[in-house]
From TrEMBL:
Residues 1-61 form the Cullin family profile domain. It comes from the Eukaryota. Pfam families: Cullin_AB (PF26557), Cullin_Nedd8 (PF10557). It comes from Cardamine amara subsp. amara. InterPro entries: Cullin, Cullin-like_AB, Cullin_homology, Cullin_homology_sf, Cullin_neddylation_domain, WH-like_DNA-bd_sf, WH_DNA-bd_sf. This is Cullin-3B. Belongs to the cullin family.
Amino acid sequence: MGTADIKAVFGKNQKHELNVSTFQMCVLMLFNNSDRLSYKEIEQATEIPASDLKRCLQSMACVKGKNVLRKEPMSKDIAEEDSFVVNERFTSKFYKVKIGTVAAQKETEPEKQETRQRVKEDRKPQIEAAIMRIMKSRRVLDHNNIITEVTKQLQSRFLANPTEIKKRIESLIERDFLERDSTDRKLYRYLA
């Protein structure tokens, strides 16, 4: 999604060039034909996803010095019952005004847990691939050296957890890619 420049005239014939996101431009263009729009009307006219639309409206109506729109009732959050008008009293000492977009809300705890779980799942094949590369070249290696080498090989991407490496080794043994030495349980052999 790019940005766009819009020329706008505010109260007292003050002219500004607004640098806005595509979503913000779509919303502002609606005010060429209407003095007042409800959140629902903006949502229906633009079909912008709700989370993006709320951030877009918040950045244009609730950020001091960038509030080219006025929100009624005035508050920091955007609600579905809100209505918006062009802020006739908007002023800036600059001709060109960049209207940024408010950052997305932080993840909730369940979302963080889900993200961590997905990352953990995504790392499993990477850990297994590193183990297999090492074992294919070495043929026989003890547990501590595998842990050290896998950690070293993956350090540019992420810090591999030794417990997870051990689980991946166990998984590879179960699937007959590796085997434990019959005399030394800490020694692993590559199976071709």
